Amino acid sequence: MEKISVAVRFRPPKSSVDADADSPSFSGGGAVGNREWRIDDSGISLLHRAVPVPGTSFVFDHVFNESVTNARIYGLLVRSLIRGAVDGFNGTAFAYGQTSSGKTFTMNGSGADPGIIPLAVRDIFDTAAEAADREFLIRVSYMEIYNEEINDLLTLGSEKLPIHESLEVNARNGCSNFLLLAVTLCKDLCCFYSVVYMCRVCGKKLLTMLNKCYNSLSLEKQIDISEKQT
Ligand SMILES: Nc1ncnc2c1ncn2[C@@H]1O[C@H](COP(=O)(O)OP(=O)(O)OP(=O)(O)O)[C@@H](O)[C@H]1O
């Protein structure tokens, strides 16, 4: 796999919002008006009355149409990152796009089609369990980038996390002083993730919710706030 891979996922139109005469549809989804996107495995191009519009053809590593499952995206793009991470290589998978474009749908998924995050969590634990000759410390943090500021969603305060950038060799770029949770069991991380999701939906701070959940879920011994990174 290339070091960086860029994929585009087409979302089915929401009839009331997107399917107006000005929104081009895509091939296979039925043309709306005179324009449509033609898509194949690695490219998209805009057609007007079936003729390509100059300057509107774009090539990507992968292009997925609306019928793709999260599991297929995971298998093609993310599984190798997880295997690499277990072997000691850094890896990142992120969804980027305008509001309502399907980032949450892709990352979280649903019960019927779990998204990238639950699939990755399971894979991390399964892969680590297979490596019987090594010990793993699995830790999670949770933060958001909002208006170009980084918020640690595990903390109760509203302190912004500082960002460090340096061109020096071996410099530690990124942010620091965020909380990490050490997790030993896959089911605990799944519980943690459910709580994260609940917090996002309810707009509650995660640590407050986790504290409430520790007793009922008996998580106190398995998940603890282990370290404040400096
Ligand atoms: N591939 C898809 N198939 C079916 N429905 C989808 C798909 N992608 C997104 N949706 C639906 O479109 C709506 C918006 O998607 P989603 O919430 O994932 O967008 P988002 O990019 O996370 O938006 P925001 O940036 O506002 O949080 C949701 O109702 C979601 O279920």
UniProtKB/TrEMBL annotation:
InterPro entries cross-referenced by the UniProt entry: Kinesin-like_fam, Kinesin_motor_dom, Kinesin_motor_dom_sf, P-loop_NTPase
Keywords: ATP-binding, Coiled coil, Microtubule, Motor protein, Nucleotide-binding
Annotated GO MF terms: ATP binding; microtubule binding; microtubule motor activity
Binding site for ATP: G97, Q98, T99, S100, S101, G102, K103, T104
One Gene Ontology biological process: microtubule-based movement
A cellular component annotation (GO) from this entry: microtubule
Alphabetized SUPFAM superfamilies for the sequence: P-loop containing nucleoside triphosphate hydrolases
Positions of transmembrane segments: none
Domain (Kinesin motor) ranges: 3-230
Domain of life: Eukaryota
Coiled coil (residue ranges): none
Family listed: Belongs to the TRAFAC class myosin-kinesin ATPase superfamily. Kinesin family.
Alphabetized PANTHER family for the sequence: CENTROMERE PROTEIN E, KINESIN HEAVY CHAIN ISOFORM X1
Protein name: Kinesin motor domain-containing protein
Species name: Triticum turgidum subsp. durum
